[in-house]
Structures are given as C-alpha cells and as structure tokens.
Amino acid sequence: MFEIGKKGAPDPGPRPESSPARTESSPPRSSSAMSREAAVIGPSIHIDGDVRGEEDLLIEGEVSGTVQLKNNSLTIGPNGKVHADVYAQSINVDGHLEGDCYGSERVNIRKSATVRGNIVSPRVSLEDGAKFKGAIEMDPQAGQNRPAQPRSAPQPQAQPQAAKPVAQPPKPEAPAVVKTGAAS
C-alpha cells in the first residue's frame, strides 16, 4: 500500500485511477484560472465618476460617468443602471444602459436590456425583445479605434472651427450692390 510511489512496485490499478484524478484536478485548475470572478458593483452601490480597471466587472448597482475596462469584459446585470459611455473588450448588457458602447471585440444586448446610445464594435448581438435606440457601427476596426475619451469632448472643438468660415460671408457687400442698383 505504501509502495505505490516506490520504484519497482506494480502499478496496474493506480495508474488508471491516477489518470482520472489528473483529469479531475485539471478542470478545477483551469476553472480556478477562469474563476477569477468579476469584480461586482452591488445593487446598493451608486458611483458618480469614472470607473477604470484591469479586471472583468459586473454592475448590479448604478454608475454615472464613464466605464473603461480596456482589455476586459463588462457585464451590466439585470438590475444594473449605467448612465455612461462604456469602453471594454466585451460588453454584455442585461439591464439599463444610457450612453455609447465601444467594444473592441463584441457587444451583446440581451432580451432583458434597455439601451439608449450608439454601439461601436466589430461584432454586435441584439436579442429579440431587447429595447434599443441608437446607431450601430460594425466596422472591424471600429472597436480598436475607439476614442480614449467620450466623443462629446472633441465635437465642440470641431464645431466652432467649422462655424467660423460659415459665419463669415460678407454681408456688407449685399447692401452695396443694392445701392448701386438703386442709383441706376
């Protein structure tokens, strides 16, 4: 009985048992590597501001601001309410999202979800029964070229520059032409 690990001891029975034991021990190891469970913002938590991280996140509470999980997944649970632009590798929405979604790999909108905002990702899934109002851009490079900050900041800078040339047509020339025509 104690000679199983010693050299020269017959192992006809323990080897088949050890193989399943290794198989049984392998899944817990892989699941423990994958069981690195997501961080959770619970139902009683309310966050106003920016949320950034390097791990998966499950939101069951309320978040307002921005959510940035560059190389990780974001899940908005059935009770989650997010009023923010969200940036993640993979985004799953079961709850309420009001803001733009930038998924570098995919965005899944489940049937229990309500989404008001634009979605930018190479792969988008919208389940039957989900409520969605916005636009979807599915360019394969769209999620990779996502802005580092919400799009609202760059847009006001671009608009005044475009407005200056449009607002500068010479209006004094029009009265000068009218006066010249009236004198004839």
Number of strands: 12
- Quaternary structure of the protein: single chain
Number of helices: 3
Structural class: alpha/beta
Head-to-tail CA distance between termini: 124 Å
**Low-confidence runs of at least 5 consecutive residues:** 14-35, 148-166
C-alpha Rg (nearest Å) = 29 Å
The secondary-structure element order is HEEEEEEEEEEEEHH
Beta-strand residue percentage = 35-45%
Q: Which term fits the overall shape?
A: globular
Main β-sheet, in a few words? 12 strands, parallel
Estimate percent helicity.
Answer: 10-25%
Average pLDDT taken over every residue: 74
Characterization of the model:
The protein has 184 residues and is an alpha/beta fold. It has a domain of 99 residues. The protein is built from three helices and twelve strands, in the order αββββββββββββαα. Strands 1, 2, 3, 4, 5, 6, 7, 8, 9, 10, 11 and 12 form a twelve-stranded parallel β-sheet that branches. The longest helix has 21 residues. It starts with 13 loop residues before the first helix and ends with a helix. About 22% of the residues have low confidence.
